[in-house]
Amino acid sequence: MPDFPIIDAHVHLWDPQHFRMSWLDNNELLNKRYSVEEYREHTKNINVEAMVYLEVGLAPHYAILEPRWVLERAKEDPRIQGIVAAAPLEYGEQVRAYLKELVSFGPLIKGIRRITQGDPPPFCLQPSFIKGTQILSELGLTCDLCINHTQLANTIELVRQCPKTQFIVDHIAKPNIKEHVLEPWRKEMKEMAALPNVICKLSGVPTEADRANWTEADLKPYVSHVLEVFGEDRVVFGGDWPVALLATTYERWVKTVDALTAHLSPAARKKIFAENARRFYRLQKA
């Protein structure tokens, strides 16, 4: 376990009784409240000094209400130091008014995530989507990329066309770990890492493996590759709680990342577990 405070750069909180979340239907494990109180219980043995909230795929009509709800949760737990909200980037220039409204909520609004993992691969290369993504940099907002490995090539082109926008790849682009498939994910992640305006998040990795039977050895080739191509300054830790409960406890995931980074220097490990997230999401100093 890390012997220093960590920053969790990927936390979800929700209450299905408050917001409509259709993707939780029929999911007995996740279709219940996971809010600040539950997060504290699941992380009680880990020194989490700050966290970044990631939007949770609410029904579209609720999206603009989500950050306001999270701001109330931040009053309950001031460790919530950043919010990555949902926004329809595919609206192009028309998304500007929406983004300005989000920014008006205050300094905790750090970035945007428009999940594209369920869309056909060329979706993110629509001219309007590219324009909406470019606008983010004008408002000082980052962009979380939630994709699967089949969408990497097109997403690389999106990043190339938005050089002023700062990107972070969630869940190491969801490779097919369950079947131990490395290519072309490995090659394309190297191409992604060659772009200077993108970093990578070590989150959601066990969920892409055999959820009931994964081992540290199953994850190692993927985590090691991310560390190699992005380097110690461009990788951040994320818990992906509570979605990660489908495959792991919070504590087991922290211990796994700790073990897979044990060969690095203490300074490098502090970057991955805390400092890189603080810099990317512009979090306040502890």
N-to-C SSE series?
EHEHEHEHEHEHEHEHH
Distance between the termini: 20 Å
- Segments where pLDDT lies below 50 for 5+ residues? none
Helix content: 25-40%
> How large, in whole angstroms, is the Cα Rg?
18 Å
* DSSP summary: helix tally: 9
Biggest sheet layout? 8 strands, parallel
- Read across the widest sheet, the strand sequence of neighbours is 1-2-3-4-5-6-7-8
Hey, roughly how much beta strand do the residues contain? 5-15%
- Assign an overall shape: globular
Number of E-type strands: 8
- Indicate the mean pLDDT: 97
Q: Helix/strand-derived class?
A: alpha/beta
Describe this structure in words.
- This protein is an alpha/beta fold and 286 residues long.
- Helix content is 35%, strand content 14%.
- It is built from 9 helices and 8 strands.
- The protein has helices spanning 36-42, 66-76, 95-103, 127-138, 152-161, 185-193, 216-230, 250-260, 266-281; strands at 6-11, 48-54, 80-86, 109-113, 142-145, 167-169, 198-202, 235-237.
- An 8-stranded parallel beta sheet has the order 1-2-3-4-5-6-7-8.
- The longest helix is centred in the C-terminal third of the chain and has 16 residues, at 266-281.
- The relative contact order is 0.15.
In short:
With about 290 residues, the protein is α/β, with parallel strands linked by helices. It has helices spanning about 35-40, 65-75, 95-105, 125-140, 150-160, 185-195, 215-230, 250-260, 265-280; strands at about 5-10, 50-55, 80-85, 110-115, 140-145, 165-170, 200, 235.
